[in-house]
Amino acid sequence: MIKKFWNSIFLNQTFFIALGIIAVVFVFGHFYPLYNMVALGLLVLFVFVVLLDLILLYRKNGITAKREVGSILSNGDENNCSVHITNAYEYLLFATIYEEIPHQLALRELKFKTKLNPQKTKIIRYILQPKERGEYDFGDIIIMASSPLQLIKRRYAAEASTKVSVYPSYIHLNRYSLQNFKYFSNEIGIKKTRKLGHSTEFEQIKGYVKGDDIRYMNWKASAKKGSLMVNQYIDERAQQVYCIIDTGRAMQMPFEGLSLLDYAINSTLAMSHVIIKNHDRAGVLYFNKIVEKILPADKSMGHLPKILNLLFNLKTVFLESNFEKLYADVKFRISHRSLLLLYTNFEDMNSLKRQLPYLKGLAKNNVLVVIFFKNSEIEDVIKNKATNEIDYYYKSVAEKLSFQKKLMVKELSKHGIQSVLTDPKDLTINTIDKYLEVKARGLI
């Protein structure tokens, strides 16, 4: 008990200032005896005030605290958090609050200085922006409280330990309104220019009336009912769209705190939401040396949590991805013609040409869109003004590398493969635009 008491006592800066003043008066008292009496009086007063301060702080446990944070946080986004501090004392307190936040946030400390009004609750709001997915451990809330005398600080430790999961970006799913894209039409969802195929979807069994197509006659139902029954079908609008994520080493490159894989994951979640809202079927596949997982396409909103959970623990590997294995698995496991949105990255023409035969194979029976990234650092070098020979050299190399990215787009187009070359920050917008464009052109 005594040890706990001593561990909770801390001395304020004003304590040392007051003690220093008394020491100076004692020094003067060595030369002028009158100052000795003044110094002794100040020392007695100081001890009395310190004891009074201790009584004010320790007369009861008067501070409680709790943290409000969502059970899940959105990766790469600003997440609102708050701390609620209640002062049960009858007088004003001065407090410094320390939040024990997860180490993944890379903040040395998060502290707030504030005044706590008597018999009131103070709400301190702050924002956290995680940069990686996973489990985050929050610790306790530490409050260093001082009375109005501000000589002693009492340490309170409010138990607030909790574990929070950081999921792919889900906060802004609803901000991607299809009406803002040029290919959207209110009448049918997208502008259709032509229709390559026709498929139907079963709706119900109904009684036969003159004019019904006899090819859809349901003889089993007719026998049970004792009258002619036919199957009724409707045109099937839903088409399969698979987001394919490369989790190989090419996707480890960072941009503004997030890896390219994280941008692809956030875009996949937003795309899946848009696809389902547009009455299509959304599926997800990710691969590296092997095809790790295929989540079959579905058009129900209940499919989104499955996609979110699938994307939660995705990590990059230090191996080059196997596109041959991807081609084989897609050909075997995705039987219907689908739109394939492939998130990957190529830094030069050689890396693209190695995988081109497999990309052509994927595009043979599907509509393939290869989505890869501009190198933002190279683009910055190109934009900067050259002032010396070294700058001109770096700029010429950067322009050559940037030009290779544009050549990749032309190379893919030459083989009938759609592509999106984008900055990471514009990935989701550009991918949605390409999806709507493919739909508008009736390619699937």
Verbal overview:
- The chain is of the alpha+beta class.
- It folds into four domains: 57 residues; 105 residues, Sandwich (Immunoglobulin-like); 224 residues, 3-Layer(aba) Sandwich (Rossmann fold); 36 residues, no CATH class.
- The chain contains eleven helices and 23 strands.
- The strands form seven sheets. A six-stranded mixed sheet has the order 20-19-16-21-22-23, sandwiched between helices. It has a five-stranded antiparallel sheet with strand order 1-10-9-5-6. A three-stranded antiparallel sheet has the order 2-4-7, with no helix packed on it.
- A hairpin with a 3-residue loop joins strand 12 and strand 13.
- Helix 2 packs antiparallel against helix 3 and helix 9 packs across helix 10.
- The chain is elongated.
- About 3% of the residues have low confidence.
